[in-house]
Write a structure and sequence with these properties.
about 75% helix, MetI-like fold, about 280 residues, about 0% strand
């Protein structure tokens, strides 16, 4: 198979964005500025408070924030493995196949995005709890999910999967069919086309989906507190630590919140720095 020959025939859609010659009116710019300040002010206020009070550095020396940080990083890493393993085939099927019930399948994929977090946690409890739909089967396997670290991972996978699946599906759709067909003409098998043509060309969208899913998993709160509880060192992730410490002392809450803000900001900047094919995703 000659991969370079296949890649020469416009692998992805690269339509140039249209340039607008007319500038917005002054009042539009003014309202836009007010909106931007409104969105930025709470974040700036939090970061300034963290730096002025020294809460971030002092709290990092304590055990609570470090335990929550380690648990958050470990659980999100595990959840990403599951999201990729299950989400990539699902995204490929949704991008390339037409079947009865596809609209319902896509709606189910998107549902966790709009589902209230408390409802998601309750649904997970009824699905995987001891008396849930799958609870009996899990007990036979010796698995108890609710109020364990495993429950944290399950909740993160549930809420983060749509972000990865949507981005990856868009990436698969953006790959030119002519490029894949050229590879088949060169003698490539379907697995070779997928591994050496489709996946590399969709990689920017897949990477963006990964960081978005990680950010969503890192910030998960509602479903986790209902399904996994808020047990220090076991299920207490950074968002739950913010909630707990806010009721007693602000230093740990400010430190955990600052870490989450910086992580989220870094993720969003990384997504925008990635080279997305035009029309292949949520960001441009």
């Amino acid at each position: 198979m000659s991969t370079p020959a296949a890649m020469r025939s416009s692998p992805v859609s690269t339509a140039a964005p249209r340039a607008w010659s007319q500038q917005p009116s002054w009042w539009v710019v003014l309202l836009a500025g007010v909106g931007l300040v409104f969105l930025a002010l709470p974040v700036v206020a939090l970061l300034v408070r963290a730096l002025e009070s020294g809460a971030l550095f002092s709290a990092l020396a304590g055990r609570a924030v470090l335990d929550a940080l380690v648990l958050s990083l470990g659980s999100t890493a595990a959840s990403l493995v599951v999201v990729v393993a299950l989400g990539t085939p699902l995204a490929f099927v949704l991008a390339r196949s037409s079947f009865r019930g596809k609209a319902l399948a896509e709606a189910l994929v998107d549902l966790p995005i709009v589902l209230p977090p408390s409802v998601a946690g309750l649904a997970l409890l009824f699905a995987f709890g001891r008396n849930g739909v799958a609870g009996g089967a899990l007990e036979v396997l010796g698995l108890t999910v609710p109020f364990t670290t495993l429950a944290v991972i399950v909740a993160q996978v549930f809420v983060a999967s749509p972000f990865y699946i949507r981005a990856t599906r868009s990436g698969f759709r953006a790959v030119s069919p002519e490029v894949e067909e050229a590879a088949r003409v060169d003698g490539a098998s379907e697995n070779a086309v997928l591994g050496r043509i489709t996946m590399p060309l969709a990689a920017p969208a897949i990477g963006a989906g990964l960081v978005l899913a990680w950010a969503r998993a890192l910030g998960e709160f509602g479903a986790t507190i209902l399904f996994a509880g808020n047990i220090e060192g076991r299920t207490q992730t950074l968002p739950l630590l913010v909630y707990s410490e806010f009721q007693s002392g602000l230093d740990e809450a400010i430190a955990a919140a600052t870490i989450l803000v910086l992580a989220a900001l870094g993720v969003l900047i990384a997504v925008r720095l990635m080279r997305w094919p035009s029309g292949a995703g949520w960001f441009s």
